[in-house]
Design goal:
The complex is a heterodimer. Chain A is mainly α. Chain A has nine helices and two strands; from the N terminus they run H-H-H-H-H-H-H-H-E-E-H. Classes of the chains: A mainly alpha, B alpha+beta.
Chain lengths: 205, 282
């Protein structure tokens, strides 16, 4: 009996030690991009290495291209969509002055070899969550007429100052609910407020 | 709605008896009508449900143990109220009744859930949140229709061997071992159409969205729609059959065919069955 009790205590201790090691922070702390999440902590996602180091800051910040020019499905479907290669080429065919840059060379290498670029996912939600881009974009960009960089930035951070995108917000349920709890004014003229949905089956599938 | 609101109005999120004109000002109340006269018992609805909702095929052995996962099943009945031994089942003359979650307004499953994994949504659905479910199975025990199914196995590991996992519906999660699941009225379709409708600044039109079973039914025995809209097909049938959501005892004319199963239990189900007309003389 005593041996069993000792074994039990030891296994408990082992469990506690194990749980501490599991609890280690999966993401690096500290704000390289200086973005604070709503719930106060910085949840920088891993730096995803993309096949081409796509410079968001050139397209979105310097050239001031609307996010939805490339992520075209964001306003009418659940997913925002990664642009097809012909969308990149469609513009870059007309910009011969940057053709000799290494990234553009790589882009045309994919085009010449009839390959699509294997972009990697940065903002990956769990399989049991249903997030709808359409409703968020329609509500805050088209209805409230807020700037597109702000609207997308609520969840994606300041992508216009990044090269390849990196997850800077927590994108966890508590973080979503924080926003859905807030009283959002119906429109610029209508002072009545409304909340985002709280029903479980709105987001969980 | 905030957390304060949730705590303050907690009772409205629990099951309770529906009242008159409860959904009069609501946008949606999903409901269904099944015409048993048109049902041929072909099982197309069951098959469609398997395909739409990522249901695993459990096999004969597990089926015999009662581990079947069919959210929609076809029940067979012979004769008028007489029981037939299993080995004496006649070859013909069966009557069919598709049975799935009745989305009760005062659902017996909701009150017994210890963790609030099943509750009522604003559009009248009896929700089941898989992430919150701890697998106590109280809900299944308390369900008079026996339409809740428990995951006894981690079906995701073996039910869809490669490349079959490619046919899984990405809009529905693959449930894991130890959680309860049931018919959702194809909530993924409802939510998609509601989102598009809201973008257009309107409500979902009648016939714009339907469940997988109603879509697959070859005889159109199943009608699905929005009961809050009095112009919808479903609302018309409910009205014509003199069935009201908040009544537990229907006082209706002799020639009415509509009824709800186990009305006397006061579960206030959202599914109306149209009784089969039988020619007893022939």
């Amino acid at each position: 009996m005593i041996i069993r009790k000792i074994l039990f205590v030891f296994s408990l201790l082992a469990l506690i030690v194990a749980s501490f090691s599991i609890n280690a922070e999966p993401f690096k702390a500290g704000g390289a991009l200086g973005t604070q999440t709503i719930d106060g902590y910085n949840a920088l996602g891993p730096q995803v290495e993309q096949p081409i180091e796509f410079p968001h800051y050139i397209h979105a910040k310097i050239m001031k291209i609307n996010c939805m020019y490339c992520h075209t499905y964001a306003r009418r479907s659940a997913v925002s969509g990664i642009p097809r290669l012909d969308k990149c080429i469609g513009c870059h065919k007309m910009i011969p002055e940057v053709r000799d840059r290494p990234r553009i060379k790589k882009l045309f290498w994919y085009w010449d070899n009839h390959l699509s670029i294997p972009w990697k996912k940065v903002h990956d939600l769990p399989d049991f969550v249903r997030f709808n881009h359409e409703r968020h974009i329609q509500r805050f960009y088209f209805q409230d007429k807020r700037p597109v960089r702000e609207v997308c930035g609520y969840c994606h951070g300041d992508v216009a100052n990044m090269t390849t995108a990196r997850r800077v917000k927590a994108i966890s349920m508590g973080w979503c609910i924080d926003c859905h709890k807030k009283d959002h004014q119906i429109s610029a003229v209508n002072l009545k407020t409304t909340n985002g949905p709280h029903d479980c089956w709105m987001c969980h599938k | 709605m905030s957390l304060n609101n949730l705590i303050k109005n907690w009772t409205s999120f629990r099951a309770r008896r529906p009242y008159l004109d409860q959904y009069k000002n609501a946008d949606y109340k999903w409901a269904m009508v099944i015409d048993l006269d048109a049902c041929t018992g072909c099982n197309a609805c069951t098959t469609a449900c398997y395909a739409e909702n990522n249901l695993p095929v459990v096999g004969k052995e597990r089926f015999e143990k009662g581990h079947a996962m069919h959210w929609m099943r076809i029940e067979r009945y012979w004769g008028e109220g007489e029981s037939v031994p299993v080995d004496m089942v006649p070859d013909k003359g069966a009557q069919f009744l598709p049975m799935m979650c009745q989305q009760c307004e005062a659902a017996p499953c909701e009150v017994v859930c210890p963790v609030g994994a099943t509750h009522h949504s604003a559009d009248g659905l009896n929700t089941q949140v898989y992430n919150r479910c701890v697998g106590s199975r109280y809900c299944s025990a308390n369900c008079p229709y026996k339409v809740r199914y428990f995951n006894w196995w981690q079906y995701a590991d073996f039910a869809w061997p490669n490349p079959l996992e490619l046919q899984l519906n990405p809009d529905v999660s693959v449930r894991s071992k130890g959680v309860m699941e049931k018919c959702t009225f194809c909530v993924q379709r409802l939510r998609e159409s509601m989102d598009h409708a809201k973008t257009d600044g309107r409500l979902v039109r009648d016939g714009e969205v339907t469940t997988a079973c109603a879509q697959a039914c070859p005889t159109s025995a199943i009608t699905f729609g929005n009961l809050a809209n009095p112009q919808s097909q479903v609302a018309k049938v409910w009205k014509n059959q003199q069935i009201a959501l908040e009544k537990d005892e229907q006082k209706k004319d002799e020639n009415m065919r509509g009824y709800r199963i186990f009305e006397e239990f006061r579960t206030y189900p959202s599914v109306v069955y149209l009784e089969r007309v039988r020619d007893l003389e022939a």
